[in-house]
User: Which sequence fits this backbone?
């Protein structure tokens, strides 16, 4: 639950965690089809980063073939654990867009 | 060995595998300092993708602070295993550049 939606602002954002990639693929495809958005952001941290890339690639190759990777950003986040130690974790943001939908909008 | 250099064309490319991130960080920093190139490409496949992002982030935050991520590309590669089955693996290419060196070159 906490992995997927965090309020209105992050409506188009899918947080990738430790579930199998296909659950996130489903979430992204659903967002494109029912969310009415032509842009979906896939976010992940640490080891889930490779799963986020898998998700984006599966969506693009198999389900939403007109989707394109608009932008990929990486950053470092500082996390403090229970013992008070801080550790740095890399994170990724993959922005997927479909060109079709925006073309449809233009033609209206 | 096979992870790091594959001929002249891939001289500026660091292949990230299963070693600790710091070994790849060292390789990237060495490439920037002695390789005479202001562009280094970090490549990884599958689970090593998150390690590649870690490598890029550590280089950028700690060692080559003027380095910037110029471009990140993802793709899918089809691999055939010993049994003849094909499986798809995601891959990433992170292109790091330093602005300083190219400025130095211009001023000469």
Assistant:
């Amino acid at each position: 639950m906490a992995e997927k939606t965090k309020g209105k602002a992050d409506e188009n954002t899918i947080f990738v965690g430790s579930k199998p990639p296909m659950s996130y693929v489903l979430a992204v495809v659903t967002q494109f089809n029912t969310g009415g958005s032509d842009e979906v952001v896939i976010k992940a941290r640490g080891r889930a980063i490779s799963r986020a890339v898998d998700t984006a690639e599966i969506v693009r190759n198999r389900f939403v073939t007109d989707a394109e990777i608009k932008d990929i950003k990486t950053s470092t986040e500082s996390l403090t654990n229970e013992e008070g130690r801080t550790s740095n974790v890399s994170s990724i943001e993959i922005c997927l867009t479909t060109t079709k939908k925006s073309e449809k909008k233009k033609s209206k």
In short: The domain at 7-100 of chain B is CATH 3.30.110.20 (Translation Initiation Factor IF3). The longest strand of chain B covers residues 67-80. Residues 1-9, 104-108 of chain B have pLDDT under 50 and may be disordered. The helical segments of chain B are 21-34, 48-63, 99-107.
